[in-house]
Amino acid sequence: MSDLKPARILAIETSCDETACAILENGRALLASTVASQIDIHARYGGVFPEVASRQHVLSIIPVVEQALAQSNLTLKDIDALAVTRGPGLAGSLVVGMNMAKGLALGLGLPLVGVNHLEGHIYSPWVYNAGEGAPPEPQFPLMALLVSGGHTELDLMTDHLTYKRLGSTLDDAAGEAFDKVARLLGLPYPGGPSIQKAAESGDPTRFKFPRARLENPYDFSFSGLKTAVLYEVNALKKKSNTLPVEDLAASFQATVVDTLFQKTMQAARDHHAKEILVAGGVSANRALRQAFLNQSEIRVHIPAFSLCTDNAAMIAAAGYYRYALGYVSPLDMDVQPTWSLS
Fold first, then answer.
1. Same fold for the domain at 8-127+306-324 and the one at 142-302?
2. Is residue 174 over pLDDT 70?
């Protein structure tokens, strides 16, 4: 789709606890990306506190946009369109970013595009830093594994903005399971990085945790795995005051990674996908990245570490294709905190 019109997109992302702004050129070249993280604030609660998150977005949104413009050496007059996360996410957080984007669009007379947060994650591998060599663009049909704190699903992507959901989680998302198991093991929030660090010195074969057998082979379920870890932890505590945290973390992580990898590869083969895309916060997990990148059967696209967690560059990428293909949103659009990609 090289005939799409060129455009600079300024995007805003406030779906959860990251206040982010980015400026992207022609759907791929990243000119600026700024993120104000709230991880340290929410760590004391063991998870995201929604009201605190929305208040922090109010404090951070204007400085973050100003920093992105300064970083890119551009002004608002150089922007062609605005993109903003419309959902899913925390309603109080989403409305801050939406109102900022609406205000800019109204004041500047620019088109506004509402973007699905999940769609943004899928477009994150298209992004590269301006001035660096552009990596190969993902080719369709594409099997997308979307794996994050709130979502785990497999989507067949046959063209830009065209998806068919093949399967999703029936209970806990993979990232949610990481957080809950980390809590069981006494590891700090967020659970993904904590379990990854502990697993580095653990034995992934010590504990044989179950893998759910489901009617739809492309669906996921991690609640049974989480419960199995709980039972193992309780049994071990009866025998000793010291838990083998590293081995438990490594065995749990290996089970999750193998489940995600095997189901994605099966879906890709079954639907004759040319390539695979892995995106979302859990795509930052090193064991998961290695599992996909070490196989040579199908080309795999995984975003840079900085683009795995919530950011506005991915919203700008998805926003560009929506803008270029004519999907402009009305200024009175509302947040949709629970809408699905498919």
1. yes
2. yes
Q: Using one digit for the tens of pLDDT, what is the confidence trace for 57-113?
A: 999 999 999 999 999 999 999 999 999 999 999 999 999 999 999 999 999 999 999
Domain boundary assignment for the chain: 8-127+306-324, 142-302
| Contact (CB, 8 A) for 17 and 39 | yes
- Alpha helices (runs of H) in the chain, residue ranges in sequence order: 39-43, 50-72, 91-108, 117-123, 174-184, 191-199, 223-239, 245-270, 286-293, 313-324
Domain spanning 142-302, CATH architecture: 2-Layer Sandwich (3.30)
8-127+306-324: what fold? Nucleotidyltransferase; domain 5 (3.30.420)
Q: Report the predicted TM-score, pTM, of the whole model to 2 decimal places.
A: 0.94
- Residue environment code for 180-207, b if the CB has 16+ CB neighbours within 10 A, otherwise e: bbbebbebebbbbbbbbebbeebebeeb
Question: Can you tell me the distance from the alpha carbon of 41 to that of 37, in angstroms, rounded to the nearest whole number?
Answer: 9
**CA proximity to 125, closest of 287, 290, 340, 306:** 306
Can you say whether the dihedral through the CA atoms of 304, 306, 309, 315 is positive or negative? negative
> Is the distance from CB of 130 to CB of 316 less than 8 angstroms?
no
Q: What does DSSP assign to residue 169? A: B
Report which of 297, 256, 307, 259 is spatially closest to residue 276, judged by C-alpha positions: 297
181 with 191: CB under 8 angstroms? yes
* Backbone dihedral region for residue 295 (phi beyond 0: left; psi -120 to 50: alpha; all else: beta): beta
Q: With 0-12 CB in 10 A as exposed, 13-18 as middle and 19+ as buried, what is 213?
A: exposed
Q: Find, among 220, 222, 88, 221, the residue nearest to 166 by Cα.
A: 220
Mean pLDDT of 291-309: 94
Question: What are the structure tokens assigned to 19, written together?
Answer: 């206040």
Q: Quick one: DSSP state of residue 26?
A: T
Q: Is the peptide bond before 50 cis (omega within 30 degrees of 0)?
A: no
* Residue 221: both structure tokens together: 């379920």
